[in-house]
Amino acid sequence: MNARRAPRQGRSGDEGGGDARAECLDADGLRAEAVRLTGLADFGAPGHGPALDLLVSALETEARLSPAGRAEARDTLLRALRTRLWLHALPVPPVEQEPPVVLVGLPRTGSTLLHRLLALHPALRAPRLWELLAPVTPPGAGAGSLLAEAERHVADLARTAPDLARVHPTGADEPEECEHLMNTDFRNSVLGLLSYRIPAYASWLAAQDLTAAYTLHRAQLAHILARRPAPAGSRLVLKSPSHLWHLPDLDSVHAGARFVVLERDLEDAIGSVCGLVSAARRKRSDAVDPVEIGRDMTAATHTGLSRMYAFTTDPSVSDRCLTVSFTDLVAGPEATAGRVLSWLGLTADGALRRLWREHLSRNPRPDHVHPRAACGLPPAGSQPSPHRSEGAS
């Protein structure tokens, strides 16, 4: 599809530009700024409009944003709008995409560890952070400048949120969560449940069909693969907690996907999720309520797990699913990664195992204190805690 061009009015040095970065968020203003910066005016199907409007409203009225948090939210939304314009200005590259391997489960179930080990196999291609932040190459940009921009993003994270950077290590050229690609349709459960306190948006999103969002997700992956091709016959290996609540929609777009289902003791998982969410929200707000986080994350994890197991135990899907225990993964990461590869019909040779050992020695698992008491959760071990949420089949 050819995009309608709008008159160019110059480009600012940063996406927000000066003091405007701290102004109130405004959906129409963000759209106008994206048009000005790209010279494009076609945002595609109008279905994204209500999502963007509600997300912006919730960020302004519910998220209790600090000035830095508001500036970050503005940059995130503006980047998504610019990417959406570029996506509709360019044809989707005719790249063959094998059905991906998708790691699914709650946050804090070992997905980052397993994702990075699997990505070291030459037949598995994991998108890197720099690719996810800029899935479509902007005019005049090259891979080097996009990588440098992602490095600044990582440095800013380490400076402004050291606790978050410690519990979720991030690198510009490291495999990262594809939830970034969900932003272009403004339907992203990570934004709604984890990064920000925006209950109106989160409640609305839980009931939405995300097929259009996953269609754009697939298109962005095609652009990524066209820019840096993967070997013929290789598979993408993806992961993000945002998929947990919407797996049927993902599967309808990425037909034939294989799912690695990560399980962890539910009580431990909720405690760890609360620590992650607390760190993420402190980066963006000076008014974080740990007890509210404990209550909301408990409800969200039970809903997410119920949906996940309803999907993965369906007879039409279950033969494409492999369960991985967090306990087994932490105790034997190489053995667990080897088991996943075997399930995919791949092997782990000596060279790969050396890469695994080098990666594990350079990246020890970080300590993570679960703020159970602060979040109003019962003491660890005080109640039965199955892997699956109550009511899951």
Distance between the termini: 44 Å
- Helices, by number, come to 16
Coarse shape: globular
- Structural class, please? mainly alpha
* Rg, alpha carbons: 20 Å
Q: Flag low-confidence runs.
A: 1-21, 388-393
The overall average pLDDT, rounded, is 90
Count the E strands: 5
Q: What is the strand arrangement across the widest sheet?
A: 2-3-1-4-5
Largest sheet: 5 strands, parallel
Helix content: 40-55%
Characterization of this structure:
The protein is mainly α and 393 residues long. 50% of the residues lie in helices and 6% in strands. It contains 16 helices and five strands. It has helices at residues 27-38, 48-61, 67-89, 111-118, 129-133, 143-160, 162-167, 189-195, 199-206, 211-227, 247-253, 266-282, 290-312, 326-331, 333-343, 350-362, and strands at 101-104, 124-125, 235-239, 258-263, 321-325. Strands 2-3-1-4-5 form a five-stranded parallel sheet. α2 (48-61) runs antiparallel to α9 (199-206) and α8 (189-195) packs antiparallel against α9. The longest helix has 23 residues, at 67-89. Mean pLDDT is 90; it is low at 1-21 and 388-393.
Task: Summarize this entry quickly.
The chain has 393 residues and is mainly alpha-helical.
Q: Topology, please?
A:
Layout: H1 27-38, H2 48-61, H3 67-89, E1 101-104, H4 111-118, E2 124-125, H5 129-133, H6 143-160, H7 162-167, H8 189-195, H9 199-206, H10 211-227, E3 235-239, H11 247-253, E4 258-263, H12 266-282, H13 290-312, E5 321-325, H14 326-331, H15 333-343, H16 350-362
Parallel strand pairs: 1-3, 1-4, 2-3, 4-5
